[in-house]
Design brief:
The protein is an alpha/beta fold and 292 residues long. It contains ten helices and 15 strands. It is globular and about 50 Å long.
Amino acid sequence: MSGTAHSEVGAIRRLVLKHARDAFVSDALIDLEWQALRYRGRPDFKAAVEEYEALIRLFRELGVEPELVPSDGSVSLDSIYVRDAAVTSDGGVILCSMGKDARKPEPAALRAAFAAMDIPVLGSITGDGLLEGGDVVWLDGRTVAVGQGYRTNWEGIQQLRTLLGGAVDEVIAVPLPHWQGPDDVFHLMSILSPIDRDLALVYSPLMPVPFRDALIERGIELIEVPEDEFATMACNVLAAAPRVCVALDGNPRTRSLLEKAGAEVHVYPGLEISWKGAGGPTCLTRPLLRDG
């Protein structure tokens, strides 16, 4: 299967997910963990499984057959947000080092899952380095932007740069705001979702001016998420293909703006699997290979 890992917008050819059934496991585990993980509300296991089945059906309708990471007793409910523990590159997957302590075991669990799936691992972020996949965004095949905040630090960015080596021309470090503090879920992809090579969904009030200017200078048109829809994760949208979007249901103004820009928007119900854990469709998915 040919393609590239250095894209956020090409048609997805290989996709890894972790089903709510295997991440949440049971109501008993949810009761044990959800408050300590700072979820917005207690997920309902049965409803979460039903929502996830709807998400899988949506991907199949879009021509993508997901590969599922198995259950692993070493990880928490947060492992449903499979993007964060790994970064893709054409040389192989790079395993992250999580900025949230409760998520520290996830990269090792993914290593075992990837081995079973015959997915090569290029390397890992180690030592004092912190890196989470939600902070890493390919702007084109040779340029990657990385949010620097509470989940990803400078050391992690430098290790990523070293591991990518000659496969990239530029690694752009993007300083992230304090916003709601170190316990909040805030990644670069909280304020940036690429929709096409020349189109991105953004929340400018939390975006550094130099980075926003750099996107515009690259010829990327910016769709601004309305203020009243940012809290409901309107800025977290996955491009399944150029201008073909997967979005959390319930943000009609953002959907209308995307459609006016020529995008096709597919929504899924995500109260249990997305809103309560503050992880939208980009967080729930780890695309491995896309059309170049």
